[in-house]
Amino acid sequence: MDIRQLPIGVFDSGVGGLTVLRALHARLPHEALLYLGDMARLPYGSKSPHTVSRYARQAAEVLVKRGIKLLVVACNTASALALEDLRAAFPQIPVIGVLEPGAAAACAATRSGRIAVIATESTVRGGAYERAIHALLPAAAVRAAACPLFVALAEEGWHDGPVVEAVAQRYLKPLFADARPDVLVLGCTHFPVLASAIAKVAGPETTLVDSAHTTAEAVAEMLATFDLAAEPSSKPSVHFISTDSPERFARVAEGFLPHTLRPLEVELIDL
Q1: Cα(123)–Cα(61) distance, integer angstroms
Q2: 17, 74 in Cβ contact below 8 A?
Q3: For the chain, where do the domains classified as CATH 3.40.50.1860 start and end?
Q4: For residues 185 and 128, is the Cβ–Cβ distance under 8 A?
Q5: Fewer Cβ atoms within 10 A, N terminus or C terminus of the chain?
Q6: Structure pTM?
Q7: pLDDT tens per residue across all 271 residues of the chain
Q8: Catalytic: 188?
Q9: Which CATH number fits domain 3-97+213-268: 3.40.50.1860, 3.40.50.1970, 3.30.430.20, 3.40.50.300?
Q10: What is the spatial distance between Cα 184 and Cα 146, in angstroms, rounded to a whole number?
Q11: Could you tell me which CATH class the domain 100-211 is placed in?
């Protein structure tokens, strides 16, 4: 089989990575996509680095064994803690995370050099965004805050309203107390579905950066670099895998996808 016709593999701790899948499908409509959501073990953001690396390796192995031409780690926590391990474990395929494209987009968007990052506990604790931003913009002033409740709200379909805005206010207030940042990085793929509520709290002068679209552009460039792009005449498929409850996966996915997903369209596996 022509390797160019193989799917792009995408995995996340749950359904948050569907924001990346959606961006990939929009940017690369001829590419087949294989998505794995590790619903049984989410969230990754509160786990130890060792555990995140182990979970990421197991999820990636499923996709690689199925046959993929490129792996997208659509989870900021796994991108921060496990990306290099995955590249070492699977040298035969290109591996790309969402963190570095998100950092690049933040650096391109800032005017003042003041950048705020909201992410999971593990991503913030590890300082991965600060390192990635400073590698591109050494003088940047970066602040980061862990927002674990945002993941739960997104998974439950609570995308806006007074409860979400109250949580956003509690999380963001310290970041905007003085020397306001002009860029706010949504450093978890669950967060874009809460963007409306987050933007209300952050204010119109703050640019929200979602790494999904930047990641899709990086994937397009990587496909071209390695001559892996599918033919324009290809009829792509999108296949969904979950490690727990296809019914829950399909229900929650409605908030992330532009169409309804039926439980029968979600394959259940055990890791």
Answers
A1: 23
A2: yes
A3: 3-97+213-268, 100-211
A4: no
A5: N
A6: 0.92
A7: 789 999 999 999 989 999 999 999 999 999 999 999 999 998 898 899 999 999 999 999 999 999 999 999 999 999 999 999 999 999 999 999 999 999 999 999 999 999 999 998 989 999 999 999 999 999 999 999 999 999 889 888 899 899 999 999 999 999 998 889 999 999 999 999 999 999 999 999 999 999 898 899 999 999 999 999 998 877 789 999 999 999 999 999 988 898 899 999 999 999 8
A8: yes
A9: 3.40.50.1860
A10: 13
A11: alpha beta
Using CA atoms of 5, 65, 74, 156 in order, give the dihedral in degrees to the nearest 10: 110
CB pairs under 8 A, 24+ apart, for 195-202?
196/159, 196/160, 197/159, 197/160, 197/161, 197/164, 197/165, 197/168, 198/118, 198/168, 198/172, 200/165, 200/168, 201/165, 201/168, 201/169, 201/172, 202/172, 202/176
Task: Identify whether 75 is a catalytic site residue.
Answer: yes
**Given 32, 74, 81, 188, the catalytic residue:** 188
Of 75, 140, 175, 253, the active-site residue reads 75
Helix (H) or strand (E) segment spanning residue 140: none
User: Rg of the chain over CA atoms, in angstroms?
Assistant: 18
